[in-house]
Amino acid sequence: MIRVELPQHLRTLAGVKGEVALEVAGPVTLRAVLDSLEAKYPMLQGTIREHVTLKRRDFLRFFACEEDLSHESPDALLPEAVASGREPLLVIGAIAGG
Amino acid sequence: MSQVRLLVGTRKGAFVLTSDGKREKWDVSGPHFAGWEIYHLKGSPVDPNRLYASQSSGWFGQIMQRSNDGGKTWEQAGNKFLYDGVPGTHQWYDGTPHPWEFKRVWHLEPSLSDAEEVYAGAEDAALFRSADGGQNWEELSGLRKHGSGPHWQPGAGGMCLHTVILDPSDPKRIFIAISAAGAFRTDDGGQTWKPINKGLRSQQIPDQDAEVGHCVHHIAMHPSRPGTLFMQKHWDVMRSDNAGDSWQEVSGNLPTDFGFAIDVHAHEPETIFVVPIKSDSEHFPLDGKLQVYRSKSGGNEWEALTKGLPQKDCYVNVLRDAMAVDRLDECGVYFGTTGGQVYGSSDAGDSWAPIVRDLPAVLSVEVQTLA
Q: What's this model's pTM, rounded to 2 decimal places?
């Protein structure tokens, strides 16, 4: 199972508490994880990635294993620790405000 | 017993304020969608328990919500707002072409005849329609594809379609307004549109007779006189008596004719309300005095309404969608401020009292008069 940790507002939209667990068939890439996430929680469509273009929304970041994966290709394999479920993929809202 | 329900959109959530017909004691429900910007929420005139809400965030984009029980509970609707075809470009602030990009929904206008039908005014400027309760959205692209579209420019707040008015006497006629393109009208249900900006004067554009480019802030209409429109432009209060074909200024004796909000009395089609704001560089009331101005003559002659409103040290703003009137016998008037106050008057503006004082900055106020 792939573990994904969402920011508070997206947990509220999805109606979940804590991490979500996802089944991903095939290579564990960012695209595959987000496809699975949006399939299980369709209310999140458009909130992490733009509709159609699937471009990451500007103020969100993807972290895992103490690395920023936001600028990696969505088709790159995620770290083995994420693929095996030892570590979560973190969806992070950028710090902003004042 | 009559009931009044205020739907208040704020920078950090939505609030539902309810009272009986006396409008003295209010129950406050919220925040709904806490932490999200709620640009607008509005109820269906066909089914008052059907509400629509625009929920957005700089982080997570656009969400649409609807309620079937007057705002007690909500369910997420569709958020797929796609421009029809290749979006093309409009002008950017520096005059260069800039691709149309969807950012958020500013205004929701439920149909007058079908609770499942609702219109959404978007930034970047476009009008969308849903026929299934907000689940799926289709752009009425004849507006954006009007020949002037590539010349539209955003106002300081973005290139937003912020006003949608449905003509109760003609289901094919819709009025919309865009900052800073101007006002437009369709007479064929949204297939084709014409700019209706003749008579507007705007120092910010070089050609005073330009077909587009005017910064219209808001338009109001009384349902019994759908051919008469009242407009708060960037500067100037205007009226049209021919469905926008031409406009004349009715600022009259207003101390400043800059402002955002404008509305019409529920039972007196020539009685209108505005909230004068000092200037486009100082978005607060003149001299720190929060004053609603009322004209009972359709403009030109205005009186200040101050009873119950702060008359010193008040430096809030009242945004374009943040004023509304109820339909009780003695017309109630309501407005919200960027300081988080919602003021109400149960005597058509003669006196005011705060309903709530400390909400997040108010973006919109709508009112439902319930039997």
A: 0.97
